[in-house]
Amino acid sequence: MDIDGVIFDLDGTLWDSTEVLARAWSGVIKDVEGIDLTINKEDVEGCMGLVIRDIVKKLFSNQSYEPQKLLMDNICIRQREYLSKEGGILYENLEETLKLLSNQYPLFIVSNCQSDYIETFLSYHKLGKYFKDIECEGNTGFTKEKNIIILSERNKLKNPVYVGDTQVDFEAAVYANIPFIYAQYGFGKVEGHNYSINSIKELVELLDKLSAN
Q: E-strand spans in the chain?
């Protein structure tokens, strides 16, 4: 397998931002009259992989469109504020692994997040130097499967792989017709995958093996 790029999901694959997001989302809800709800870390984990509009629909299904739209906009603003000040929890050995991988492959990120979310991750944790390009639903209006294709075509990738932790990630990779590597340490449960890792560090050895075949 002549791998010419490694594309990563973000949440549950490179970092865990759920605790910070839970506080940010709860802060937004406090300001909205008529909603009696506290968001915890587990609630956020259950939303990982979804685009922001579907997150709001899931958490606030009893609200009409306009309140949902307002919540969506305010959540995007508030979580960016929190993450730009606190960041998230990087998975163990992340930067060490990215450094090794970036010496062998171009690295990328494709996520179903809103605009500026990936940039906040890269800026706060000073990891931008390891990645060649990024794409997300907030920029294009398309979900992950199409954004993988957009990014691959933009960077002239012929044989990339996608690393993610949810069934949504797996299905996106299948749609884009590229190999998927399941990050088992993340948030989701994935069925049908061919390759998996128990830690981000294991990715180096797995890619070496795939490249040698």
A: 5-8, 15-16, 89-90, 107-111, 133-136, 160-164, 180-183, 195-197
Torsion sign, CA atoms 171, 206, 188, 110: negative
Give CA–CA dist 112/43, Å, rounded: 17
Tens-place pLDDT, residues 89-122:
999 999 999 999 999 999 999 999 999 999 999 9
pLDDT in tens, 153-207: 999 999 999 999 999 999 999 999 999 999 999 998 999 999 999 999 999 999 9
- Whether the predicted model's global pTM rises above the 0.85 cut: yes
Amino acid 34 reads G
Phi and psi at 90, nearest 5°, equal -75, 140
Structure tokens at 21: 């997001």
